[in-house]
Design a protein that fits this description.
Strands 7-6-5-4-3-2-1-8 form an eight-stranded mixed β-sheet. It is α/β, with parallel strands linked by helices. It has helices spanning 21-30, 47-54, 88-114, 121-128, 137-146, 153-161, 176-185, 197-209, 224-236, 267-272, and strands at residues 5-10, 35-38, 60-71, 74-81, 189-192, 214-218, 240-243, 261-262. The chain contains ten helices and eight strands.
């Protein structure tokens, strides 16, 4: 198991990624990955396609989701692994998230207009594509780039869309506890995605008390000391580590497969799905 290459945080065009779930599977195989998790934002609509595409290959697809939450004024994301995509709670969350995310997009566009940065909702929707079930800030960033308001994709977040920036809008996302409960009810395990290091020490004990199972300890942007600190904090509370690239597509900074974790580093999480 310890020689396997694993990436447990990937997105498709069903949310704010750039490729279809089937193409994501083909790309993962070409990149030499053996286990991936499809963790689209607030939707499980791409899981079936990805698993069907991987059938009969050397690749295993972990059914997952990345749930957006609000906690003490912060937008935090919770990964759900080994979930049943047909679970009633996930299906209801997915349905409600469509409306929530569209309202949020309209509000962000309105703020940008007030800043003298006009973008049309219809263009954001078109750039997201017909397959997108979950509109997100990366879709708006693409529209800003196309319109010439920014010179690079990251600039959209640095200037306008990151939390605390003038174009950011908080939405009525569920609480962390509600997200964990929903993931557990769907037969899955919950892990804090890309925890901001400055918030980790403040919140992790509370999240563990809410039933959180794991922490994303390995990802691009974390150095060795960052990962060690997260691993130590998780271990103290009996939480498993996970890791992944948060890959959204070929236009990103990393090619698929450039970042991976060895299976031994996430063996507890993989063991949870041994009979799934």
């Amino acid at each position: 198991m310890d020689t396997m290459r694993v990436d447990l945080h990937l997105h498709s065009h069903v949310s704010d990624g750039q490729v279809a779930p089937e193409l994501l599977v083909h790309a993962a195989l070409a990149a030499g990955l053996q286990v991936i998790a499809l963790t689209d934002h607030d939707t499980v609509a791409g899981v079936d396609e990805a698993q069907r595409a991987a059938w009969g290959t050397a690749l295993r697809v972990v059914p997952g989701i990345e749930v957006s939450t609000r906690h003490q004024g912060h937008e935090l994301h919770i990964l759900g692994y080994w979930v049943d995509p047909n679970a009633a709670g996930l299906q209801e969350h997915q349905r409600l998230s469509v409306g929530r995310r569209e309202r949020r997009m309209h509000a962000m566009i309105e703020r940008l207009h007030g800043l003298g940065v006009p973008v049309a909702f219809e263009r954001v929707r078109a750039l997201a594509g017909a397959a997108a079930k979950s509109l997100g800030r990366p879709h708006l960033a693409r529209a800003l780039l196309e319109a010439g308001h920014i010179r690079s994709f990251p600039e959209a977040f640095d200037r306008f869309l990151a939390e605390g920036k003038p174009g950011f809008v908080a939405e009525g996302f569920p609480s962390v506890g509600e997200a964990v409960e929903m993931i557990h009810a769907a037969g899955g395990v919950a892990a804090w995605a890309h925890p901001p290091l400055e918030l980790f020490a403040e919140f992790i004990a509370d999240f563990a008390a809410l039933g959180m199972d794991g922490v994303e300890c390995f990802r691009p942007g974390y150095d060795v000391d960052d990962s060690r600190a997260l691993l130590a904090g998780a271990a103290r509370l009996g939480l498993f580590p996970t890791g992944g690239s948060d890959w959204h597509g070929p236009a990103g900074r990393l090619a698929l497969g450039d970042f991976y974790v060895e299976a031994e580093a996430v063996r507890e999480l993989l063991a949870r799905g041994a009979h799934a």
